[in-house]
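Researcher: Please predict.
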Amino acid sequence: MRLRSLVYVLLAGLTVTGCATKHQKDSSATKTAFAPVQETAAPEALQTEDTRSAGLEQISKKMTLMNAPWFRPVGFSLRGPDSEANVQGGFSGRTLTVSAASQIQLKDKEIILTFDDGPIPGRTERVLDVLDRFHVKATFLMVGQMARNYSALASRVAAEGHTIGSHTYDHANLQTKGHDRAISDIVSGDAAVRKATGSTVGFFRFPYLADTPQLRRELAAAGIVVLDVDIDSKDYFASTPEAIAARTMAVVRAKRKGIILMHDIHTRTSAMLPALLSMLKSEGYSIVSLRYGRPKAGTVVALAGQ
């Protein structure tokens, strides 16, 4: 399958926002985002591995979908000054419209929020509720299989005005696949997310941040914005919500701007999010919203003619 399929996706309609930036990879950031959690296992058809945290279960086979009930988090006490009530005014910043990664130029104390690997019932909704309470928007990089299985939830994310991106169909490490198989996975994931959300998907993030120069070049030529990471929350490790929020803010304070990577598939992430947003707000940061802009027509026509 060739990347021209992605061009047809881009030309189908530009109704959703998107984003990108450049990231110097931390080796720990390439670890999987699917560390087991303490609640009932999520219906992820994805591989789980966490080699850094001793005692965490390693799952090497694809998980089957389950009908287990979802449990609300218990025992959390992350209550920032704005975490309970609707935050008056929020702290939403400007909106950036981009069609290339190079167009993401953040000012001091500007932050972009991103969530990977969802959507997933019982967890993505909580993230959406917190974002709504703070009047801010985020970018959701959806796995195609998850978007297909939970299309109503995927549609809600888009309907609430958040940016939509894709994250392959099944969260595969594309560095370990042949080029053609990698392209097929990207296109399949894009199509599944587009169908579930009813939106154009102009953004993409490599699972595990495992890219190749050739894939990056071809995605850019197709007008797809590759979204990387500046600030890794590392919420895929089994940590307390308090620890995740503190760790993330420590990096934010050091870098003073950037794209934050989080995962809406973890209960601990939604649990820590009010505290994180409260700290960002109280320290004068603003949340930048992203939109996807139409790529240059010449680039699309040239690619379509391959």
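Model: The longest helix spans residues 179-197.
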